[in-house]
Amino acid sequence: MRPCQRCCIPVLMSDSSLDLPPAAATQQDGTYATLRQWITVGKFIPGERLKIRDVATAMGIGHMPVRAALQRLAAQGALVNSPNAGVAVPRLTLAEFDDLLQVRMLLEGEAAERGSVRLDASQKQTLGLLCQRMSVALKKDDAMDYLAANEDFHVLLYRAAGSPMLFGLIDTLWLKAGPISNQLFDYPQARAVLNDAHGDVMRALAQDDSAGVRRAIERDIFVAGQFLRQHYRKKTQCLP
Fold first, then answer.
1. Which of 84, 121, 163, 213 is the most exposed place for a label (fewest CB within 10 A)?
2. Closest CA to 180 of 102, 105, 90
3. 186 pLDDT band (50/70/90 cuts)?
4. Numbered ranges of CATH 1.10.10.10 in the chain
5. Residue closest to 6 by CA, chosen among 126, 158, 112
């Protein structure tokens, strides 16, 4: 299990969690953070039901912290309550997907441009290594490792912007985008180009071209979005 990149971000706690003993509250927060990351990196797909028993078994913990974490994620809109069926990963309509894509390009482009001028040499080296890791994952057709490295790449770049508010907004959008992200691997032609924009980011960083970094990130989101849009039209029943 990968450590969650977001553990240092303050999260809203329900009143009930404030009344729990410290150990129980810590377990609830850890369960929530792990499930949140699983959603972000596409471990679950749109429409998938999340059963408390199955999630608890996968995490090796009891039912109570899982139930609390799922309720918390549902309250944030990352999951939806299904009548007599617990919670499920929401499906986006085509209009919602297009809106999400545009807002992501706007916010992530801004974070990338700001972050690019604040990165130190060590951070740039780490980005380069993550870019190589994504390339290897694509060659191996390893969707989960690609998405994990991709998350680390974007988190490092965006956090460098020094704006917790901006990153928090982006993080919320990732919760909505994550469940559809691994469906990129349904298309061989997508795998062939998914890492191109990250290489463009590295070249722009080498030239101290912050606007170029922004364009590369916007292109990264846009290109992936077009493949996912194609997927939506073919496979999502709720779309026109």
1. 84
2. 90
3. confident
4. 15-88
5. 158
Show Cβ contacts of residue 52 under 8 Å, excluding neighbours closer than 6 positions. 63, 66, 67, 70, 86
Sign of CA dihedral 217, 223, 224, 225: positive
**Residue 5 scores a pLDDT above 70:** no
- Tokens at 87, concatenated: 């919670």
What confidence tens digit (pLDDT) does each residue in 217-232 have? 999 999 999 988 887 6
What is the Cα–Cα distance from 198 to 179, expressed in whole angstroms?
21
Enumerate the CATH 1.20.120.530 domain ranges in the chain, comma separated.
Answer: 94-235
Q: Exposed (0-12), middle (13-18) or buried (19+): which is 50, by Cβ within 10 Å?
A: buried
Report the pLDDT value the prediction gives residue 25, as an integer from 0 to 100. Answer: 58
Query: Which listed CATH number (3.40.50.720, 3.20.20.70, 1.10.10.10, 3.40.910.10) goes with 15-88?
Result: 1.10.10.10
The predicted-structure confidence for 29-53, as pLDDT tens digits, reads as follows 899 999 998 998 888 988 899 999 9
- The enclosing H or E element of 86 equals strand 86-88
Give this prediction's pTM: 0.80
Residues recorded for the chain? 240
> Could you give the C-alpha distances from 59 to 2, 11, 12, 73, in angstroms and in order?
12, 21, 22, 17
Query: Which one-letter amino acid corresponds to residue 35?
Result: L
